[in-house]
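Bench notes, afternoon.
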Amino acid sequence: MASMDDVFERMQMFRIVLQRFQESLEGSLSDLRNRHDEVDPHWQDEARRFYDAHYGPLHEMLLRYVQDQGPNYLNFLDMKLRAIEGYLHG
């Protein structure tokens, strides 16, 4: 069974990786938004409508994660890390 020190260390590492993922996803969505803005005036056919119908729900889900769920989970981890640190180090 892992000690609380191990749990604390693993949770810190997970938080770092999750923060990197959050930043990477934000950057990717920003890049994708820029690419869409570039092709939008030129791509107005049936394929575009099909693409938008399928991409739209995914994009909304990713935005929800980046804007709400990701930051909320990072805040939750920060709260738990502070609690564990208080337990371990007083």
